[in-house]
Amino acid sequence: MINIRNDKKRIAMLIAISSAAATYHNPAWSQQGAAIVLEEVLVTAQKREQNLQEVPVSITAFTATELASKGITTITELEKSVPNTQFRASRATNSTLTAYIRGVGQQDPLWGFEPGVGVYVDDVYYARPQAAVMDVFDVERIEVLRGPQGTLYGKNTVGGAIKYITRRMTGEAEGTVTLATGAYDQQDMNISAQLPIIDNELYIGAAIARMERDGYGSVDTGYNINTGNYSASEENYNKDILVARVSVEYSPTDELFIRVAGDRTDDNSNQPCGSQSNASTLTHPANGQSFARSSNPFDGACGTTHLSNVENSGFSLTAQYQLTENTSLKYIFAKREGETQQFIDFDGTPLDAFDVPAKYTDDQKSHELQVNYSIDRIAVVAGLYYFSGNSAGAFDVVLNGLGGTPYMDGEHYDLAIGGDVDTESSSAYFNISYDILDDLTLTTGLRLTKDDKNSNIRRYAYNTTNSSPYTQTQGTNFTYGDASNDTLLSVATDISDKDADKDWSELSPSVKLDWRMTDDVMLYISYAEGFKSGGFDMRGNAATNPNVAQGYDPETVETLEAGIKSQLWNDRLRLNFTVFSMDYTDMQLTVQTAQPAPVFFSSDVVNAGTAEIQGAELEALFQVTSNISTSLSVGHMNAELTEVISGGTDVSDSWEMLNAPDWTGQFAINYERDLGDAGSIALNTAASYRDASRNFNNVVCSCDQDKSYTLLDAGANWYSADEHWTVGLHAKNIENKTYKTGGYNLGSGELAFYGAPRTWTASVAYAF
């Protein structure tokens, strides 16, 4: 099942995992008398609290202490530690998440598309990827589950799930203030506090975080079309985010628990501008020279305004009641809404050659009723889930002038694309674990889902006579322009929600068998099916594809997995290993092709792909001595498109899986020392390896990360003896490696977006 393709990859991986790396302060170990043992890790992957080593699921868990000591500040950094995952900010965005687990995800964050990886915050599903690149603060634990999730979760997810669990209140009056500074004038502040209103009954808590940082590079603005010079610049890859959370917890009796929580994220960071990864096909009007590749990967010369904003807020109510000693009920209501203002420059030049000002809005409501029952040999989780939401958006594609010449301002050809999608999803699920023998457990689950969607889709062509770069006058009245400047030229798509209305039903089973061979070793095998709902292509061109209103169907993944979870050498070594095989059918592929001027491109979403994915994952933690610990995670995938039908022909030989590196891994070393009255210190260092990966299925691009790379991180933390003070210093990408995280490949050129360069952060926290 596992295929090491050549010696180069084997050598590269050995080099990566033999480099020094980091785990965390207060790692999962304790000293019991003369024995050094690993501590128990508790997770809720199966909707009840269990020891990580007793759960027959591929899962990686991070406690708040581990996250802080590693210096992890956003969930995208988890990809370093979790095998066969890729979590990135989407190209040309700051806080939109592109997440892949075992080669399954969603590359295109367009409204109405379903993500392949589910993001849950306190069991509330985030339907849209905007604002899902969450900063890590006020957190109790993060769990990453690999493989289809559905028979235990409100919303079905085909690739896996990220569970972000915020900190529960302790019942005491307490708080923490954290200040941080660092490279590129980083200035962060995080304040959290909780207060009992009624002792042992009613508590209120709040947390607020402000994260600011200058850009890693700059964007030239104020372009002079006559001289080819620039008069100003903006920050590129900067950060300006404000996040706030508030919660109230009420426990009037031992049986009843109620939690009301609200949150808001406001991201005012500049719109990232990609840099040319090869010379542009566009030329300076002043001298006829091509816009060359920048010497600094973080610099750019986009012609759109860099004003952007992502706002996301939500409210949730969770009520849990212990009905009997064996039965508990849980109800979760959630309401979320978001708005995004975005400007994407696809040509990466100051010319108005391929600029896209855009706006998106979304709102969602969900209800989930869950029953947990356990007695003797049986444990049952069952639930009903209902979701309703609307995702809407509009964007203008500001293209070349009608004569085909790039203009700085004035008359332009403009494609205006917009619409919305209404979604209703209802499901019932159950999961039953039965101890056949004292050491043998069978778990089966089933999920029935019904999704109903309808959509409005519009695609108009305009001549707009007033468009100017670096302003909000670009485009038509779909986004920021003035309708009085527009002349309607043609209508390619005008579909109402009565024409685009479909529903899909799916039955998704799962079965697991685990055998506790000894007290320290468990073997398991599992089979699970997952699906991602169908939908409608918001960019659909009915003039070239009359079937736009028919939409595209769901895609499905069938996963067979076998694993071993073990705790060896007198509880000093935790060693977990998994192999898996996946059949990925009816893949929803976005096919973008070049078209003659003035249209330049077309886009269609089709169920055209079939893939096979095999792989293995190893996670290990070893407590070498009472002071030294090491950790290792290795992931390998052989992901291959076996069939891609385009125009009635199988073109899979020229297509590849995207965001599916063959190898990922991290090796880590941590040193801790108790300093007595002077407190304690923890030193760590980490090397994370990642193989090459593609950004597009059907085309090779200079924006691809076409070679493997290793990132070296290190950190140090000091903790005061009275547990009030914490001082940390963390350095990331110490060798200042340049690596690409996304890109575009279009007729005007190829653009790349890059991961962070070398950075450092110093922080001090006081708990009271």
How would you describe this structure to a colleague?
By secondary structure, this protein is mostly beta strands. The protein has one domain (7-767): Maltoporin, Chain A (Beta Barrel). It is 2% helix and 58% strand. It contains 2 helices and 40 strands. The strands form 7 sheets. It has a 22-stranded antiparallel beta barrel. Strands 5-11-12-9-10 form a 5-stranded mixed β-sheet. Strands 6-7-8 form a 3-stranded antiparallel β-sheet, with no helix packed on it. The longest helix is centred in the first third of the chain and has 11 residues, at 7-17. The chain is globular and about 75 Å long. The chain starts with 6 loop residues before the first helix and ends with a strand. The relative contact order is 0.15. A motif (TonB C-terminal box) lies at residues 751-768. It is a multi-pass membrane protein. Residues 263-295 are annotated as: Disordered. Residues 52-161 form the TonB-dependent receptor plug domain. This is Iron complex outermembrane receptor protein.
Give a quick precis of the structure:
By secondary structure, the protein is mainly β.
